[in-house]
Amino acid sequence: MAGDLPSSHTMSLNIPTYILSLDLGTTGNRAMLFDAAGKLVSSAYKELTQYYPQPGWLEHNPTEIWQDTCWVIQTALEKGGVGAKDVAAMGISVQRETCLLWDKTTGKPFYNAIVWQDRRTASLCQQLTTQGKAAEIYNRTGLVIDAYFSATKLVWLLDYAKQQHPRINFNHILAGTIDTWILWNLTGGKVHATDTSNASRTMLMDLGTGEWSVPLLKLFGIPAQILPKIQPSIGLFGETQPELLGAAIPIAAMLGDQHAALFAHGCDRPGLSKCTYGTGSFLMAHTGARVARSRHQLLSTIAWTQSVAGAPPKVGYALEGSIFTSGACIQWLRDGLKMISTATDTEMMARQVVDNGGVYFVPALSGLGAPHWDMQARGAFLGMTGGVKREHLVRAVLEAIAYQVKEVVQAVNLDSGTDIIQLKVDGGACQNDFLMQFQADVLGIPVERPAILDASAQGAAFAAGLGIEFWDSYEELIAQRQIDQVFRPSTGAEQAQEQFHKWLKAVERAKNWIE
Are residues 507 and 378 in contact, defined by beta-carbon separation less than 8 angstroms? Predict the structure, then answer.
């Protein structure tokens, strides 16, 4: 195995000695290169343009995603001094639920990709709920009815395509989430596929069978032939077209970003969980080989699946609490309110005041996810007085991110019957020491931050390498991961937990703001 040989020796044998991973996220796209020891060699990142055509709408340009994907791959390889022929395999992790339609004859999208945060189909979701479809959809998919998921977005895209092209031929249309779009392009249009983790987030996959649900396709009016083939998360999807990078690279893993992060943290069995602080916050707890159902509005989902030679794929499930707005709050402070210049400003500003000044922020900029699932809730600052300063508002935003996570941790504890005793974390917002310490205080448990915060990319790399037996042992890969810091509850824990109950009252106000 490549992982068993010194790099100089493997190079002399001309054996590929690197694993490449892509993490195609909501706010940007990243490529990371790992060596045979599982260590990061190089990386490249490019921020992605966000399009807001109407209030509550959010879109991405699929062509820009593809072009940026090519750029980050080439840049990471160049920075590492590595050629495509030296890469043993590629793994891909992506933002989930974001979806699009494209013409397979021209390769051109019919419209922008509709992002998971987009709320344009909230009214359709409400209609489905009124029609009594919530129980059926939950039982089949493990998901609640919400505009967050792909199904209603695809309905909107199909309606748009029919209006713009009345004589449209559905045999020429392809649909998919971002993993499917990028895989199709990487393989030169040869492979139209997705994996079980991403498919489980569409509100169209039967969680028990791992196949598209015929009754749900009929309910939503989505033609089966436009959907990608569902494959195990860890297994061969195809190869990059050789002329793209100079050599063909096997694509050996494809996962949703949160599932890839769960894999990177070594959370492969019940009792282990992680929380990613990205655009949103996503707490996922592995629940084993059987579907676990929540009594507290958490989602049942696929953790990942793995191809097994001569046997059915190995399947793992998870419970997840999806929080829509976390890092996006900080981006809003920077780009929307112009209150900060960079995300790092928030830590310094939060420390300049002794408390939040009585201000509580509800981050419902795209409605509320778990455990509320309220599409009508809106963001709000409450408790404002004449003595409130900019620093209090910034601190209130950081505190709200931690409060949201506490709500989900409480729900997981109630559903599992076993309390989470340590929270493994990753994502860009984890760099904020104030936030991580406040998170430990409000939870009352340690918070473990790894040295590599891009866990989604790392997990995709680990999965791809293990999938082709580039590495022998998952346990050894996880054991060698470096931990940057463990934040433990401090003297501020009691106050933080008292404030949490006041924040819950603020949330109720934001949920009832129309009344």
Answer: no
Helices (H), 109-266: 122-130, 134-141, 150-164, 178-186, 196-199, 214-220, 242-245, 257-264
Amino acid identity of residue 329, one-letter, is: C
Measured distance CA(361)–CA(506) in Å, rounded: 8
Taking residues 102-113, what's their average pLDDT? 94
Structure tokens, 237: 């999807």
Tokens 């060698």 locate to 480
Mapped to the 3 state alphabet, what secondary structure does 378-427 carry? Answer: CCEEECCCCCCCHHHHHHHHHHHHHHHHHHHHHHHHHHHCCCCCCEEEEC
Could you tell me if 456 and 257 are in contact, meaning their C-beta atoms sit under 8 angstroms apart? yes
Q: What angle do CA 178, 180, 183 make, to 5 degrees?
A: 105
- Token code pair at residue 343: 């995300």
User: Of 86, 27, 13, 109, nearest to 277 (Cα)?
Assistant: 27
Question: From CA 53, how far away is CA 495, in angstroms rounded?
Answer: 42
Half-sphere exposure at residue 343, Cβ-oriented, CA atoms within 13 angstroms: 17
Residues 417-476: tens digit of each pLDDT: 778 888 999 988 899 999 999 999 999 999 999 998 888 999 999 999 999 989 988 988
Residues 6 or more apart whose CB falls under 8 angstroms from that of 6 comprise none
Single pTM value for the model: 0.84
Q: What tens digit of pLDDT does each residue of 319-370 get? A: 998 888 888 899 899 998 999 899 889 999 999 999 999 999 999 888 888 8
Phi, psi torsion values for 390, nearest 5 degrees: -55, -40
* 76-85 residue pLDDT tens: 999 999 999 9
C-alpha distances in Å from residue 232, one per residue of 154, 190, 221, 394: 23, 18, 26, 42
Token pair, residue 376, equals 């009508």
Give the pairing type, strands 299-308 and 281-288: unpaired
Q: Which residue has 């004449």 as its token pair?
A: 386
